[in-house]
Design brief:
- It is a single chain.
- The protein is mainly α.
- The chain has a domain at 156-270.
- It contains ten helices and no strands.
- The chain has helices spanning 2-77, 82-103, 115-132, 135-143, 155-171, 175-181, 185-188, 205-218, 221-235, 240-258.
Length: 276
């Protein structure tokens, strides 16, 4: 009986040890799973905040443009001929319809009408979503959003992150990054390029030529033809040697990362587009 008691006790003890040993990893897995779920939810919230802020900025910016066009057209009616008045009245009617559509959009009703508030919210949302892995937000960050609004601009920090995001975009065959690289120095002048002017990859004619050539390799139809003018403009500033180097870069990059990317029929939109 004593032996049996010891055996039973030992068996109970063994079961207890085994159960305890298996319980600890299970608890750790449960905790890890919960942490991953929380992390995933936090990431999704950042993505949603970015999409909402982007939608608001696009909508209210479009509304402002429509209202400005209406004002200009109305101001020209006085003293204009009958044909001009009729054309303008038709234009105002069309613009009024657009303004009404934006104002009645339920997804826009909660948007601030203050441009500074919209811009600050967008910039903060861009930075957070970009760091969380949103490729759309990363493109906006490269273009200059996310490093402004409410605090001094950290140019070295912007350059480091933008360079990282740009490299990843090229590796995955993202045409939006190529469009940014194709920005001509003349379009960056007088502050028009925002933070983008701080990137060493942007704003020299060899980069412009190479990026435009890369776009042309993926372009079709009339868009492909239109890129020839941009190539000619960039080539004007380059020696034959630099042109050949830029063309080699474009060919290599296309084979490496862009051969499977969708074909282009228009300029890719890196960040903000029109309200839809």
């Amino acid at each position: 009986m004593i032996i049996l008691h010891k055996f039973v006790a030992g068996a109970v003890l063994a079961c207890t040890v085994v159960a305890g040993a298996s319980f600890a990893p299970s608890l750790a897995l449960a905790v890890e799973s919960t942490a991953q779920a929380d992390s995933g939810m936090a990431k999704q919230l950042k993505f949603d905040d970015f999409r909402n802020a982007k939608h608001c900025l696009e909508a209210i910016t479009s509304l402002g443009r429509v209202q400005q066009e209406m004002y200009i057209c109305n101001s020209r009616v006085n003293g204009a001929g009958l044909a001009s008045k009729n054309n303008c009245q038709a234009k105002v009617a069309e613009l009024s319809g657009k303004a009404k559509s934006i104002n009645e959009d339920s997804t826009v009703s909660a948007c601030s009408r203050d441009p500074d508030v919209l811009s600050d919210k967008f910039n903060m949302a861009v930075k957070a979503a970009a760091e969380a892995g949103s490729t759309d937000a990363q493109m906006c960050y490269i273009q200059g959003a996310g490093g402004q609004g409410g605090s001094p601009v950290d140019v070295p920090g912007y350059k480091a992150l933008a360079h990282e995001y740009l490299g990843k975009a090229l590796d995955r065959g993202d045409w939006r990054a190529v469009e940014l690289l194709s920005t001509a120095p003349t379009n960056l002048a007088h502050g028009g390029g925002g933070l983008l002017v701080n990137l060493p990859e942007v704003g020299n004619w060899e980069t412009v030529y190479g990026a435009t050539k890369l776009l042309s390799l993926g372009a079709t139809g009339d868009y492909a033809k239109s890129l020839n003018n941009r190539l000619a403009e960039a080539a004007h500033w380059l020696s034959n040697e630099r042109i050949h180097a830029a063309e080699r870069w474009a060919q290599d990059m296309y084979r490496k990362s862009f051969h499977s990317s969708p074909k282009l029929t228009a300029d890719p939109v890196p960040c903000l587009g029109s309200y839809r």
